[in-house]
Amino acid sequence: MPDPNPDALRFLQTRRSRPAKTLAGPVPDRAALIPLLTAAARSPDHGKLEPWRFIVLETPAMARLAEVVQARGAALALPEEQIVKGRSQFDQGGLAVVVVEVQKPSEKIPALEQTYAAGAVCLALLNVALAAGWGANWLSGWPSHDRGFMQDGLALADHERIAGIIHIGTETSAPPERPRPNIESITTWLSR
């Protein structure tokens, strides 16, 4: 018989991301962040490739990245409202962790499985931050998909890309619950 952990199950069934714009200081310091990163790195990893790494963005880096977003948006001739939205997560944030997908050569592990593993790390970091009592949110946005931003802002190599940016801070207001998927409409049972 299984040995249930009702507290963990309840947490996972009721977890709720906190909007990044509602996060404020204090933010976790390095000593508080290391256990969160350690837990996130225990994500499923077929082939033990560790196809991810972390970049911790502290406040001065966030301000610099907001300027990189501004410059990249102008270079791409994006509408001003899109640029403002893209830079807002860096203008408003006090701490974020970039989960970088690092594609590694493997004859056995397809690239897509490495992408899934990096995504699992994002979700694990989001959940562990929430479980530790912090507010947290997983964001992306157009800068996360712009190769120029990845290179100019984060010095990512060609075989790397942003899987997600996890903002972590102190929750200033509880978000309302939102509609969740209807499990019956998205579940198929096969008996044979």
Structure description:
The structure is a single chain. This protein is α+β, with helices and mostly antiparallel strands. The chain has a domain at 17-58 and 95-171: NADH Oxidase. The protein is built from eight helices and five strands, in the order αβαβααβαβααβα. Strands 1, 2, 3, 4 and 5 form a five-stranded antiparallel β-sheet that branches. α3 (59-75) packs antiparallel against α4. 30% of the residues are buried.
Quick synopsis:
With 192 residues, the protein is α+β, with helices and mostly antiparallel strands. The protein has helices at 6-14, 30-40, 59-75, 80-92, 111-131, 142-145, 147-154, 183-186, and strands at 23-24, 52-58, 95-102, 135-139, 160-171.
Binned strand content: 15-25%
**Backbone CA Rg:** 18 Å
**CATH architecture annotation of the domain at 17-58 and 95-171:** 3-Layer(aba) Sandwich
User: What fraction, in percent, of the residue positions are helical?
Assistant: 40-55%
Within CATH, the superfamily of the domain at 17-58 and 95-171 carries the name NADH Oxidase
Rounded to the nearest angstrom, the distance between the terminal CA atoms is: 25 Å
Poorly predicted runs of 5 or more residues: none
- How would you describe the shape? globular
